[in-house]
Amino acid sequence: MNPLKRLFKQTFIYGLATVMPRVLSFLLVPLYTSVMNPETYGEISVIFSWFAIFNVVLAYGMETAFFRFFNKHANKEHVISTSLISLLISSLVFFGAALMFKETFASLIDIKESLIIYIILILVLDALTIVPFAWLRAKERPLRYSIVKVTSVAINLLLNIFFLTLLPKMAESGQSFWSEIYKDDFQIEYVFIANVISSGVAFLWVSGIYFDCKYKFDKHLWNEMLKYSLPIMVAGLAFTVNEVFDRILLDRLLPVDIAKSEIGKYSACYKLAVFMTLFGTAFRLGVEPFFFSHANTENPKKAYAQITNYFVVMGSLIFLGVMVFIDPLKKLLVRDQAFWEALDVVPIILLASFFLGIYHNLSVWYKVTDRTRFGAYISSIGAIITLVINISLIPKIGYMASAWATLAAYGSMMFLSYYFGKKYYPVPYNMRKIIFYLSVSLVFSILSFYVFNRNLIAGSILLLLFLGLVYKMEGDKLRSIFIKRED
Prior knowledge:
The chain is mainly alpha-helical. Helices cover 84% and strands 0% of the residues. The protein has helices at 3-26, 28-35, 38-59, 62-72, 76-100, 102-109, 116-128, 130-138, 142-172, 176-181, 187-206, 208-212, 219-253, 256-270, 274-293, 300-324, 326-333, 345-362, 364-368, 372-397, 399-424, 431-451, 456-482. The chain is globular and about 70 Å long.
């Protein structure tokens, strides 16, 4: 099969594995915004921001390191067993330390101590599934990967619906059994109980690798993997700062009486950019193994350039499409009008997510040349930009500072990666075409959102014009990938 065809096939399956769980998770947004006020939703958003940070620390870049060494190391069993042992030990150490110092842990992240047990369990269970999921991707078994991911998130969604909507109604009906189970003011706890159960199901489903593995710890290999993975962890932390630390800073820098409510509004509208995030993540999951497996083939740079071009084409369509249909989307997904106050952040966050997706495509140069430290440098610069803008402007303009900080950070990272890539691993990107698509989609989006004031007819005309441009410029190439020619 043509490598690009195989890439798009795997990207489609991984897309389902990524998009479906995130779509199911995204259904929690209308659920939460219909049963919670902005303040409660803001509190949950802050806790999940801490989750993201600890997830990066507990993974310490081993997922990407696993891919790299699984593809280049002669003894793949050593790569599997060494990775499993490393993450198993680090997760158990964290579990014990977090339980021992749970009061300090709760104080550090400023949450109720009653939630700590749930948080610890979720973090450890998620860390223990890193290698099993990476192994499924490395062995090109996307279907099983997809089934586990989708099932886990579906369980989480169903449990949230049960705890937050069905259980209160059954308790109100007067049935003693349900009345004893249900607790008032327990919404946040119910959310995390659902997460514990779904994470546990995912771990049990993929835990077979822990029993089948012939354990052998290769210290030299482990040291090499750590040298590769730790810069990725630094980069991951910087990414996480860019993505979620704004909620934590909003919580710290806004007046106490409005902080959680403002975070809730910002977080809900931020979720409307999820379509770009879904696309970028699905594309990255399909592309990353392709990057490594084709690094030593003939002329891999040409394929990398084509991939980035297709990403920009599809990303531009998504960007403009969300801008055109933003009003129907907000009514469908963010139910309570109290959250709509933050709608102005959507174009900024959506463009920032687009830049992040382009950055991930451009980052191939430092991954295939083992210069992962540059990923840490670049994302650290982005994190510094995020922190400086948020800290200086949140007291003045609130969550709009967080939106502009996200755009500035991801935009800077995209340009820096392109600049250093040209120096160390020049890929023949078609910059004229990339800039053209970006510019046209941005101008059309500005016209739709600001000039035509989100008028659906005017926006739809602009979207059709853009689709016509894409068809004229890319039709033949896209057909050559997706349509099998007859001999």
